[in-house]
Write a structure and sequence with these properties.
With 343 residues, the protein is of the alpha/beta class. It has 2 domains: 5-135, Up-down Bundle (Four Helix Bundle (Hemerythrin (Met), subunit A)); 140-341, Rossmann fold (3-Layer(aba) Sandwich). Helices cover 40% and strands 17% of the residues. The strands form 4 sheets. A 7-stranded mixed beta sheet has the order 6-5-4-7-10-15-16. A 4-stranded mixed beta sheet has the order 11-8-9-14, with helices on one face. The chain has a 3-stranded antiparallel beta sheet with strand order 1-2-3. Helix 7 (195-206) links the parallel strand 5 (184-188) and strand 6. Helix 1 (32-40) runs antiparallel to helix 2 (47-64), helix 2 (47-64) runs antiparallel to helix 5 (113-143) and helix 3 packs antiparallel against helix 4. It is globular and about 65 Å long. The mean pLDDT is 96.
């Protein structure tokens, strides 16, 4: 798998996902502002990957900070954290990773600044390695839900491109494939940015896992024909009551799955679970540029000029539409999230 994000030669190297699948190109971020812009402009996307990238952005910004004492150094790092936190409001992994970096900073207040700078790099790497490890564990748990010969529908991209590696929803699919199960995947295109068409299809083809691409409005018809056996998607935030925010269109898939008695699963690590948010009604939903809807790649118009556009990046799927939430600790009903993850 091509690495989504890594620390390389003193820079944060990102696979530029805005260029896929036409071009595999890497972006070397040499300051935290470039990292923030990459998150904001979807050069890196997917909740876990955003969290890892933000942590590296904090570490990168720390290296350039000129302060020589903690009383000056700490506020500078907090400012960097605040700028990175402002890039995207919905994916809670972003805030989780930044808070973890702040706690590491606070725990080292008695150490020399050079020691703190190095420790922040190490902590960001620990977050990356932990994400890969959790995704693989999650994949093993979720693979047990997929039968040999079944077809899985997924929406958006929740693969290695959306994480530090391996993936959440696609991690479940990968694990089932690695177990020798002859599965097939249906990938929604995921309008308007086409993460399913550009990224999920590309990832699965790289791994030689059978995948068929469909437009978003085809899923119900395939379900009615009995050609989809279960759905597995990722998440950008899971509220305490089990409501899930994920890419726009996820709610529609969940409603269709419920209508056709098809299991609908969400795969996500503990960093996506936000027990401070009581329900999906409290999750902030990012509104994005109208050009994502009115053009393809910002340059090919597909709608009348100046037409009003509503472009939320995410929607919320209520807990009662979710069969189970796949985590590194196992598979749970949505209403069991608090008891499993409150410690």
């Amino acid at each position: 798998m091509v690495p989504t994000v890594e620390w390389k030669d003193g820079a944060v190297r990102l696979l530029d996902q805005s260029r896929l699948p036409e071009t595999v190109e890497f972006l070397d971020c040499r300051d935290y502002q470039t990292v923030a812009d990459a998150i904001r402009t979807l050069k890196v996307r997917g909740a876990p990957a955003i969290g890892v990238t933000a942590a590296m952005g904090v570490a990168l910004g720390a290296q350039a900070t000129k302060a020589t004492d903690y009383s000056s150094f700490a506020p500078a790092i907090v400012k960097i954290c605040d700028e990175l936190a402002a890039t995207r409001p919905t994916a809670v992994n972003l805030f989780w990773a930044i808070e973890r970096m702040k706690r590491k900073l606070e725990s080292l207040r008695a150490q020399p600044i050079s020691t703190i700078k190095q420790a922040l790099i190490i902590e960001s790497q620990a977050i990356l390695e932990e994400d890969i490890r959790l995704c693989k564990t999650m994949g093993r748990h979720g693979a047990e839900l997929i039968g040999d010969g079944q077809t899985v529908l997924t929406h958006c991209n929740a693969g290695s491109l959306a994480t530090a590696g391996y993936g959440t929803a696609l991690g479940v699919i990968r694990a089932a494939w690695e177990q020798g199960k002859k599965i097939k995947v249906i990938a929604d295109e995921t309008r308007p940015v086409l993460q399913g068409a550009r990224l999920t299809a590309w990832e699965l083809m790289q791994d030689r896992i059978p995948v068929t691409l469909i437009t978003d409005n085809m899923a119900g018809s395939l379900m009615r024909q009995g050609r989809i056996h279960l759905c597995v998607v990722g998440a950008d935030r899971i509220a305490a009551n089990g409501d899930v925010a994920n890419k726009i269109g996820t709610y529609s898939v969940a409603v269709l799955a419920k209508a056709h008695n098809i299991p609908f699963y969400v795969a996500a690590p503990y960093s996506t679970i936000d027990l401070k948010t009581k329900s999906g009604a409290d999750i902030p939903i990012e509104q994005r540029n109208p050009l994502e809807v009115t053009t393809i790649h910002g340059s090919h118009p597909v709608a009348p000029k100046d037409v009003p556009v509503y472009n939320p990046a995410f929607d919320v799927t209520p807990a009662d539409l979710i069969t189970g939430i796949i985590t590194e600790r196992g598979v749970f009903k949505p209403d069991a999230i608090v008891s499993q993850f409150q410690s």
